[in-house]
Design brief:
The structure is a single chain. This protein is an alpha/beta fold. It has two domains: about 10-130 and about 190-390, Glycosidases (TIM Barrel), CATH 3.20.20.80; about 400-495, Immunoglobulin-like. Helices cover about 30% and strands about 20% of the residues. An eight-stranded parallel β-barrel has the order 1-2-5-10-11-12-13-14. Strands 15-17-18-23-20-21 form a six-stranded antiparallel beta sheet. The protein has a three-stranded antiparallel beta sheet with strand order 16-19-22. The longest helix has 15 residues, at about 225-235.
């Protein structure tokens, strides 16, 4: 089952409830100016992920959104925040209907048509693990949620809660096994066939509104993970472990109706491969992000030697709504070098709204207003170059290959700091070299020279320079590369007789 996305696509995440206000307080999804998305398409973006468009109850905001840790995060991000700025988590939803403040289903469909006309796909959220603890489904479909009893409730009133509908029922809040429960949510029970069918039906309905879904915390629904998280509760309720994974069945059902629908998993804990085997088209590559942030160059090199199929389904990112902003976490120069890396390897390239402007503030998802940040024009210019270069077809359809980085002398180990690879097709080659260290580094690179000329032209698309080099030298001892701290080359291989018209 294949989707119809280009290979190695670019995704752009938008925090919808905050972002839409720049177009006017009353703007709805169908009223966003066309040129906004046209500009993103022109940069080579293939997918727009509108995060946070579903209806969320407001009744739990006062109770759950002003804990000390959240208040501290609000103050750090938005010093002059007010209570009215707190609009609740977009991942504690009432139902999969469009938030009335953003419009209706028709407005969403009009937006989808607009995006598709520019060659863009629309992704939306699917939040499988839970609904809001105030969802209407607690009354209409209580059987889909994980229930508890008085004994569990008496022992742990942080994880379990009594039905808000005045019924004598106890439910579990949604949770990640490594953290306390989310008190604004109620846990879906994936050992219950009614719940699995209910969530699959939701996926089918969502698939009529968009081109793909980003599935929140997708590993939590894997049977072993779910069992380990809720074993004590499941034992009291006599639920048995299902024979088949929910994701395998659900994805197959949706793709039977719409083979081109795309599934992207937020995934951690080295469960990415298992989720890919369940049918996910793409899975987060958080390990790469962390290794880049920690300057683990050798580990990154080993990481990029993983199975090609796995790499092509991996989602490469430096930031998103859950992560610190890249320029803050990595540092300015480091973040730009990392952007060259993630933008020129195999897999989905994932960018977050504000990343191209060098924004520094990580906004808690519960806030409906963001601080004003002046764009960093040098960051914007650098991303414009990366996006323009990687928009070329060779970076989607070419063959990617890591190059062997060689030392320039026996006593110089700086070559270990340099990443290098090529993209090639029958006619063209691009060579990427990145010095991912604080010191100037040198290496030699051997690669195939397709020209019959004795000299070749190296056109550095990133730095707008060019060099003439001897072909035999590249073939025998390798091209000499010297890069300053966190600097990069992206070379186009040309003939000496060629002169670039412009950069």
């Amino acid at each position: 089952m294949k989707n119809n996305l280009v290979a190695n696509p670019k995704l752009y995440e938008i925090n919808t409830r905050v972002w839409i206000k720049q177009f006017g307080e009353q703007t709805i999804l169908s009223g966003i100016p066309e040129n906004y998305f046209e500009n993103l398409a022109n940069k080579g973006i293939n997918i727009i992920w509108l995060m946070g468009i579903w209806k969320t109850p407001v009744s739990l905001i006062e109770k759950t959104c002003f804990t000390p840790d959240l208040v501290s995060a609000y103050t750090k991000a938005l010093g002059n925040w007010k209570k009215t700025d707190v609009i609740g988590s977009p991942f504690a939803i009432d139902d999969y209907v469009v938030n009335p403040l953003l419009g209706k289903a028709d407005d969403l469909l009009k937006l989808k048509d607009k995006l598709n006309s520019f060659g863009l796909k629309l992704f939306l959220d699917f939040i499988p693990n839970h609904f809001s603890a105030a969802t209407r489904f607690l009354k209409s479909n209580p059987e889909i949620f994980l229930s508890g009893d008085e004994e569990l409730y008496s022992k742990d009133q942080f994880t379990f809660f009594k039905s808000p509908n005045g019924e004598d029922k106890i439910f579990a809040h949604g949770r990640d096994p490594f953290f306390p429960a989310w008190e604004d949510t109620v846990q879906v029970n994936y050992f219950n066939n009614d719940a699995r069918n209910f969530m699959t039906e939701n996926l089918l309905r969502i698939s009529e509104l968009c081109d793909g879904v980003r599935c929140d915390m997708a590993m939590l629904e894997l049977s072993t993970v779910f069992e380990n998280t809720w074993l004590g509760v499941l034992n009291t309720q006599n639920y048995l472990k299902p024979k088949n994974e929910f994701w395998g069945e659900a994805i197959q059902t949706v793709k039977k109706r719409n083979p081109n629908f795309v599934f992207l998993a937020e995934a951690y804990w080295d469960l990415e491969w298992q989720l890919q085997q369940c049918g996910f088209d793409y899975t987060y590559d958080k390990r790469l992000t962390d290794r880049l942030a920690s300057n683990e160059v050798l580990d990154v090199k080993a990481h990029l030697n993983a199975d090609k199929t796995f790499q092509l389904k991996s989602v490469r990112f430096l930031e998103n709504h859950d992560e610190e902003r890249a320029v803050e976490r990595f540092g300015l120069k480091e973040s730009l070098a990392a952007a060259v890396l993630t933008g020129t390897i195999q897999g989905m390239r994932f960018y977050y709204d504000g990343q191209f402007d060098g924004k520094k503030v990580k906004l808690p998802v519960q806030l409906g207003r963001e601080p004003s940040e002046k764009p960093n024009l040098s960051v914007r210019k650098y991303y414009d170059k990366i996006l323009l270069i990687t928009k070329e077809k060779i970076f989607q359809e070419g063959n990617w290959q890591i190059l062997n980085v060689l030392p320039v002398s026996r006593d110089n180990n700086s070559f270990e700091n340099i990443f290098a690879w090529q993209w090639a097709d029958q006619n063209e080659t691009r060579i990427v070299a990145i010095n991912y260290s604080v010191t100037t580094s040198q290496c030699r690179l051997k690669f195939e020279v397709k020209s019959n000329q004795t000299e070749i032209l190296l056109i550095d698309l990133l730095n707008e320079t060019q060099y003439v080099r001897v072909a035999d030298e590249i073939k025998t001892i390798g091209l000499f590369i010297e890069l300053k701290s966190y600097q990069s080359h992206i070379f186009k291989i040309g003939k000496v007789s060629e002169t670039p018209s412009s950069f």
